[in-house]
Amino acid sequence: MAWRRRVELGLPAFYLIADPDALQRRAAALGTPVPIAVIEPHDAAKTFATALPIVDLGHAATAEPGVPDGSSAPAAITAIRRATADVIAGAAAAVVTNPVAKNVLYRSGFVEPGHTEFLARLCEEQLGRALHPVMMLWSPELAVVPVTIHLPLAQVPQRLTTELIVETGRIVDADLKQRFAMKRPRLAIAGLNPHAGEAGALGAEDNAVVAPAVGQLIGDGIDARGPLPADTMFHAGARASYDAALCMYHDQALIPIKTLAFDHAVNVTLGLPIVRTSPDHGTAFDIAGTGKADPASLIAAIRLAARLAGAKRPVAVT
Fold this sequence. Notes:
Layout: H1 6-9, E1 14-18, H2 20-30, E2 36-38, H3 44-47, E3 52-56, H4 72-88, E4 95-96, H5 102-107, H6 115-127, E5 134-138, E6 143-146, H7 156-159, H8 162-178, E7 186-190, H9 205-219, E8 223-228, H10 236-239, E9 244-247, H11 250-261, E10 266-270, E11 276-279, H12 296-309, E12 315-317
Parallel strand pairs: 1-3, 1-12, 2-3, 4-11, 4-12, 6-9, 7-8, 7-9
Antiparallel strand pairs: 5-6, 5-10, 10-11
C-alpha cells in the first residue's frame, strides 16, 4: 500500500527485502496486484517509479497471514541482516523494519530481546566495539525515550541506575543534535514514582537515582531537568517546553505517545552508526491479510528514515 501511494505522498525510494513469490501471492489474494522488479539495491531508485523494487530474500516465505509460523523466523532474521549489511556497505541509506512476532523468533533460537538489540549486535560485529542502543518513539507531537524497556514492572527499580539514565541522556542529546539537527535539545526527565517521589515520601529512587543523573547531565552541558512528575509532563503546554521526554519504564513512555500519535508515531533507534526506524505498532495478527491494516506508521517510518539519513540512496525495508 505504501508503494501504491508513492506519487500521492511523494515518498522517497525504498526497496523491500522479501520473497517475491510470496509477495505476489499476497497481493493477488487482496485483489491489489502490484508490479514488482527483482533488483539489487543499486537499481532500486531507477525502478521505484514503475515497480516495487524487491531484493530477493533467498528464503521461501510460507506462513499464512495472521498465523504465527516458525518457518518465517529464518526469513525475518535474514532480512534484518541483509538490510543492515546494505546500509553499512553504503548500498542503502537506512533500515526500516516492519513488526515481527518476537515469540516466533524466540522459539527458533533467537537470543536477542528484539530488533533493537539484534541491530546493535550486527553493528558491533562490524565496528568491533560495544554499543548502547536507545529506543525513541518520535512524532511531531511528542518524542519519548524509555530508559528501561521490556522489563516486568517489578524489576524496574532494581535495573534503573543513575549510570543508565546518564548514558541514555547523553545518547539522546547526541543523536538529536546529529540526526535531528537540534542545536541544543531540551530533555525532560520523568520521575519513577508518583509525584516524582514526593520528596521521598512516595519512594526513595527519585532522590537517590534520578536526581543525581539529571545533575550529571546538566554538568555535561546538556539541557536537562527533572525528576518531573510524569502525570503532568504530557499535556500540550508541558510538551512545548522540551524536545524529548526520558521516561523510567516502558508504559510511562509509550502510553502518552500512542494516545497522541498512534497512527503515525515512529520507533527510532538511537546510539547506532546506522539509521533505523520502524512503525510503532505490532504485528496485528487479527487483521493480517485482510487489507484493513493502516500503512500510516510505516509511511512515517520510511519518511523519517530518509530524512535522518540525509542521503539520496534508497531505504531498505524488511
